[in-house]
Amino acid sequence: MAKRPRPPKSIGLQQEPDIIARGRTLTPRDPRQPQLPFDPMPDRIEPCLALLAAKPPVGPDWAFEIKWDGYRLAIHVDGRGARVLTRGGQDWTHRFPAIAKAAVALDAPALILDGEAVVLDDQGRSDFAALQQALGGRGGKRIAGEEVIFYAFDLLYFDGHDLSGMALVERRHLLEDLLRDATGTIRLSEEVQAEGADLLRIACQHGLEGIIAKNREAPYRSGRRGDWLKIKCIQSDSFAVIGYEPSSKVHGAIASLLLAAHSEEGLVYVGSVGTGFKGDQVRELKQQLDAMKTDRPPYAPRERKLVFSRPELVAEIEYRGWTGDRKLRHASFKGLREVADRADVFACRRQEQPDDVSTQLDGHRD
Where do the ATP-dependent DNA ligase family profile domain residues begin and end (predicted)? Predict the structure, then answer.
């Protein structure tokens, strides 16, 4: 009977002192070979903004996500720690310490995350008013606690490499690997596998603000280029506050805010908002506007009992459409935009049809 062959004897370095482990001899670099240095980490990347669309796009080139209703932030992490930047580029690390701490704990020596800071309600929906309350209101100095969650939807820089020139689908692969098991302060904004029209219908049924559509093959391009689209269930935009109507029922309070939008001729009056205020907002708003009183602007309504102010405050307004004379229909106050968020005041074109949202320029946050 033949004997089974013995396995080859392994050679251990400790048992064989005569054998020396050596690496391959290094050869000089071919001068014709291009240098491949690390990409320097940018101090800031101007955000990619979503363009308003009347309906979701169709086709395999588009990916869909839920639209979050919060503050757009960029998270920078390097060897010095984390920085939290607003859409306008202001450093708000001190306002979001929990997000900064969670970013440092991620398994990455250097990165830039793009996403949205939100506060969720009991139904898991983002609540803009609750986020403002967590920060102490517009101009408040309150430090946000762990109730604020950062949903990351893009990865722009990672471990020495600038990813902004890569296609979205490739950036998403890296982002998903990084945040695969993240369930704490920083989470992944999930891509939803569904047709855009179906997802929009479900989002609206659940009381969400809308959805975002993104071109899978597009690089990350700053500004409003059309690579990202937003489709809303409820119209919500930013308008300039130009004054108020005093309340006849509550002393030292407002009854409504006067609103304006940009046009080709400058600011134009688009109506007022008298609902949606919470708590002492009606008194706080009066105090703020009284500190910036001005003469009646030429575009303002002619009613007598109105107080006018410089258009320095920007209000976030929900509305159901436009009237024939270009005034907001069923407007409701959501809150004041932060200066640091650099909200764009809604812009309207003279040639557009008021109820056709597909032709309106949108100045809302992303």
Answer: 147-232
Closest CA to 183 of 145, 212, 144, 150: 150
Q: What's the average model confidence in pLDDT over 81-100?
A: 95
- Chosen CATH of 51-232 out of 3.40.710.10, 3.40.50.11540, 3.30.470.30, 3.40.50.970: 3.30.470.30
Examine the residue annotation and report whether 327 is marked as an active-site residue of this protein: no
0.85 cut: is pTM over it?
no
* Residue 336 neighbours by CB under 8 Å, 6+ apart: 132, 137, 138, 241, 313, 314, 315, 316
Among residues 3, 9, 55, 67, which one is catalytic?
A: 67
Query: For 92-149, how does the pLDDT look when each residue is reduced to its tens digit (9 = 90+)?
Result: 999 999 999 999 999 889 999 999 999 999 989 998 888 988 988 666 678 888 899 9
3-state SS, residue 8:
coil
How do residues 148-179 score in pLDDT, each as one tens digit? 999 999 999 999 999 999 999 999 999 999 99
Q: Per-residue b/e over 79-90, b at no fewer than 16 CB within 10 Å? A: eeebbbbbbeee
Diameter over CA atoms, the chain? 116
- Tokens linked to 240: 């300039």
